[in-house]
Amino acid sequence: ALRLYSTANSIRRRKRLYKAIAVIDMRGLGMAHTKSQFVKLVKTMYALFGWHYPESVAKLYVINAPWVFRTAWAGVKMWLHPITSSKLAVVGSD
Q1: Burial 28-53 (b: 16+ CB within 10 A, else e)
Q2: Cβ contacts of residue 29 below 8 Å, gap of 6+?
Q3: Taking Cα atoms as reference points, which of 68, 53, 67, 63 lies closest to residue 89?
Q4: Which has the higher per-residue pLDDT, 28 or 62?
Q5: Closest C-alpha to 61, from 29, 34, 24
Q6: Is the dihedral of CA 81, 55, 22, 51 positive or negative?
Q7: Shortest CA distance to 68 belongs to which of 39, 29, 40, 94?
Q8: What is the value of pTM for the model shown?
């Protein structure tokens, strides 16, 4: 459905539109979500999305991120390319 909408919108505007803004709400995320079955599902989902829609995310907002995630992101983002890290905004619950 998203691909059809995007294609129709691109035709209507006479220019290719393919970037998306995504929002991930981490409210309720807990230790149960670190089990291997859930992690495997998330990795598979992101691999498929990355394969079929490379470079299609303009901005990714992570909201209600627990402090553990925000702390981990602060450490990880320094190892990423600045363009990549600028696409992700992590916001706590406050």
Answers
A1: eeeeeeeeeeeeeeeeeeeeeeeeee
A2: 66, 69
A3: 63
A4: 62
A5: 24
A6: negative
A7: 29
A8: 0.67
The pLDDT of residue 52: 66
> What residue type is 35 in one-letter code?
K
Gap between the Cα atoms of 19 and 64, Å rounded: 24
What tokens appear for 43 in the block?
A: 């990795």
State how beta strands 20-25 and 57-63 pair.
parallel
Sign of the CA dihedral with 9 first, then 11, 14, and 17 last: positive
Among 22, 17, 84, 26, smallest CA distance to 59 is for 22
65 by Cβ neighbours in 10 Å (0-12 / 13-18 / 19+) ranks as buried
Which of 64, 3, 5, 57 has its CA nearest to residue 29? 64
